[in-house]
């Protein structure tokens, strides 16, 4: 339904696509309206990574806008199944102790804070990998170390922020120094953005050099009262938990369940409607938001979970309970073969529509409790906060710092504050 884009075009689906979709409730059913942006710019915005997902590469040899550093074997895997998303990824494979990297020179705005994201997967026998950015003088501006494997077979997200300073170009790089024996790294989805905002607000636990790939997420919340502003009849707000939502590409996957509130009726006679939903995106194929036959009203205590099967990783169990109403329970089994479960999300989301006329409520306060990822509190992980911003008012929506409850669960709130 939603999904965030971390570089911060980030992602959204459910209610949905983080950026190019919206979900509207019609006659009690949920239907996601996928709408594209009107037209496209003739040139990429300053700070945009060209061919960020390597899908434009047509041979095993790196080609523009990408380049290579170091003397050893590197190139493109095309349709081999090693990618994070899409069909292609870059790779480096060597046994020598040389520095080798995949690089791209990207124009940037000076004195601007940028957010750099990239996904890597490694052979696990080295700890000397780095993703980062250099200035025009060749000096390292920011970098993060990788190499340690905490989840076999999982891509790891490296996320960092830096100020471009006086630079008008930066060189992005992802590479490593081999340990003297056969080793490799696969690289995909490198993005750069000058905004920290998307249309999600909450927390994400993402597979990384310190986080294992998550397989289960749970949360409880009280459904808030949703107001319909007369000038925005398409208003909507979704609350959900999910797995695999961080990817943002045409072949992304996502598994989620929750509740969406939407304004119904005509301008001058609008009323809020609440609908429980589930949604699955499998390699870019979207079920759109589908109704779950559970009543949900303001003040109801809702509990949701998504769990990936250990015995069959393509199988997911989605559960939703209305703890305030007897007998309101649903458990669904869905097959999502392409989902890697490389992230877990607890999110409040506003849907996008075209033109971008769906706005957040002026005030948001959603308290989550009993939040766990793989049965552990958020304090067990290096969490990634997701923030949104109200375009017309400048209000920022985001999570408060997570706190643990009895050591087993986390509690946090998504609130609105001045931008």
Walk me through the structure.
The structure is a single chain. By secondary structure, the protein is mostly beta strands. It has 2 domains: 21-40 and 195-417, Sandwich (Jelly Rolls), CATH 2.60.120; 67-193, Sandwich (Jelly Rolls). The chain is 0% helix and 49% strand. The chain has strands at 21-26, 29-34, 67-69, 74-78, 88-94, 99-107, 113-122, 129-134, 140-146, 156-163, 169-177, 183-193, 197-198, 200-206, 216-222, 236-243, 254-266, 269-282, 285-286, 290-291, 301-308, 315-322, 329-335, 343-349, 365-373, 383-389, 396-399, 403-405, 409-417. The strands form 4 sheets. The protein has a 17-stranded mixed sheet that branches. The chain starts with 20 loop residues before the first strand and ends with a strand. The model is unreliable at 1-42 and 353-357 (pLDDT under 50).
Summarize the topology.
Elements (H helix, E strand, L loop, with lengths): L20 E6 L2 E6 L32 E3 L4 E5 L9 E7 L4 E9 L5 E10 L6 E6 L5 E7 L9 E8 L5 E9 L5 E11 L3 E2 L1 E7 L9 E7 L13 E8 L10 E13 L2 E14 L2 E2 L3 E2 L9 E8 L6 E8 L6 E7 L7 E7 L15 E9 L9 E7 L6 E4 L3 E3 L3 E9 L2
Parallel strand pairs: 13-26
Antiparallel strand pairs: 1-2, 3-6, 4-5, 5-12, 6-11, 7-10, 7-12, 8-9, 8-11, 14-24, 14-26, 15-21, 15-25, 16-17, 16-24, 17-18, 18-19, 18-20, 21-22, 22-23, 25-29, 26-27, 27-29, 28-29
């Amino acid at each position: 339904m939603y999904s965030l884009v971390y570089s911060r075009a980030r992602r959204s689906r459910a209610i949905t696509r983080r950026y190019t979709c919206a979900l509207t409730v019609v006659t009690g059913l949920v239907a996601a309206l996928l709408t594209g942006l009107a037209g496209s710019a003739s040139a990429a915005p300053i700070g945009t990574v060209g061919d960020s997902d390597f899908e434009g590469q047509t041979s095993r040899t790196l080609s523009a806008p990408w380049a290579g550093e170091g003397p050893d074997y590197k190139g493109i895997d095309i349709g081999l199944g090693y990618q994070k998303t899409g069909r292609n990824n870059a790779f480096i494979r060597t046994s020598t102790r040389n520095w080798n990297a995949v690089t791209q020179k990207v124009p940037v705005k000076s004195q601007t804070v940028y957010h750099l994201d990239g996904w890597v997967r490694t052979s696990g026998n080295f700890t000397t990998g780095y993703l980062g950015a250099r200035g025009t003088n060749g000096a390292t501006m920011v970098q993060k170390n990788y190499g340690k494997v905490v989840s076999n077979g999982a891509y790891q997200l490296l996320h960092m922020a830096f100020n471009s300073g006086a630079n008008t170009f930066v060189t992005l790089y992802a590479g490593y120094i081999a340990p003297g024996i056969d080793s490799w790294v696969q690289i995909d989805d490198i993005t750069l953005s000058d905004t920290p905002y998307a249309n999600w607000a909450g927390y994400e636990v993402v597979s990384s050099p310190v986080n294992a790939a998550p397989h289960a997420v749970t949360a409880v919340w009280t459904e808030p009262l949703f107001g319909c502003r007369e000038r925005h009849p398409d208003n909507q707000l979704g609350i959900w938990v999910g797995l695999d939502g961080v990817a943002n590409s045409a072949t992304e996957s996502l598994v989620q369940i929750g509740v969406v509130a939407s304004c119904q009726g005509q301008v001058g006679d609008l009323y809020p409607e609440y609908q429980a939903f589930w949604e699955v995106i499998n390699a870019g194929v979207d079920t759109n938001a589908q109704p779950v036959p559970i009543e949900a009203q303001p003040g109801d205590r809702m509990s949701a979970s998504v769990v990936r099967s250990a015995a069959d990783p393509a199988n997911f169990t989605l559960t939703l309970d209305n703890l305030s109403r007897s007998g309101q329970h649903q458990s669904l089994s869905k097959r999502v073969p392409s989902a890697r479960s490389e992230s877990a999300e607890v999110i409040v989301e506003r849907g996008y529509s075209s033109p971008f006329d769906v706005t957040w409520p002026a005030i948001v306060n959603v308290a989550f409790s009993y939040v766990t990822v793989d049965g552990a509190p958020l304090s067990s992980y290096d969490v990634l906060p997701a923030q949104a911003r109200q375009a017309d008012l400048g209000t920022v929506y985001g999570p408060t710092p997570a706190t643990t409850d009895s050591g087993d669960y986390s509690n946090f709130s998504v609130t609105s504050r001045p931008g």
